[in-house]
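PROTEIN–LIGAND DATA SHEET

This sheet pairs a single protein chain with one bound small molecule, zinc ion, given as SMILES. Inputs appear in the order they were entered. The predicted three-dimensional arrangement of chain and ligand is reported afterwards as a token string under its own label.
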Amino acid sequence: MKRTVNGNELLTRLGKGPVICAEGYLFELERRGYLQAGAYVPEVVLEHPELVEQLHREFVHAGSDVVEAFTYYAHRQKLRVIGREQDLEPMNRAALRIARKVARDTGTLLAGNICNTTIYDPKDAATVKAVRAMFEEQVGWAVDAGVDFIIGETFAYAEEARLALEVIKQAGRTAVITLASHKNVTREGLAWPDAARRLEQAGADVVGLNCTRGPATMLPLLRQIRKAVKCHVAALPVPYRTTRQRPSFQSLTDHACGCLPGGHAFPVALDPFTCNRFEIAEFAAKAYGIGVRYLGVCCGAGAHHVRALAEAVGKHPPAARYSADMAKHYLFGRTNLGKTGRQKAEDRRFAKAIVG
Ligand SMILES: [Zn+2]
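PREDICTION REPORTED AS:
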């Protein structure tokens, strides 16, 4: 495949149509039992690299055009917290190696990844310096791996996002910067469209939102952001039914369940709020309809969500071969092959009885 010079293959593809980027590796590997909620460090990259590779392949099969190296929270601060700082570089390089292999095997784009550092404090110059150093080391490893672009994600501070962007651009890479909109404004008090505009002015190639909000509460902000910037916009919600009163998945409360520690559904008891594939498809069509071309699903995403999203914007991923076809169902479809008239009538009666 011919690649565009200067790592701008992403922009070339966005110029032609939608680009899907599957996210949500932390939640999916936590559910599978290979990663700890709370700490949320991708130790699985070193312990079970084959599972990370497999999940990359599943997401590509489902329609992801991007393989995002699983370096989310594989940064110095997080590794310090779990006492594995010595594994920082091996973990990053291994994640990038795994992602690169899958991207090159499948003709998808390889993305590096950095994220909120958890130590950024705008009033403390020492933390700002430390944050920059954390970004620089991770971006350096991503560049060594030959990434097509770098994602800086889940920033609640617009200024921390700008720092990430600065480091990515200094390394000469295309930058996708997405903010995590927990509240109505950024942590320093900026409206989200203003934050997006600042990032565009600072050189971001794609700006947008990821994580924390579900489709219903992310879409209104996307409309504002789409109007505020000229560059491509990214939208990667969590697949949960957030509401006006509960706009983030951290704020969801499950009144149907009395056994949640602390009463919080976040992060490991969000199951009852999960969007179905039709809701994700509806979101994708609406977001694409307002001009958002970089699309994905974040924490909580399953491969079925990725496929629904891809199909909703006109793509036909390999997994579409197995997309639902209820016409083939023995009760609800038309698979009457070889059945007698009496059997067909009995099936119709039984089908009607069980749907109530
Ligand atoms: Zn997320």
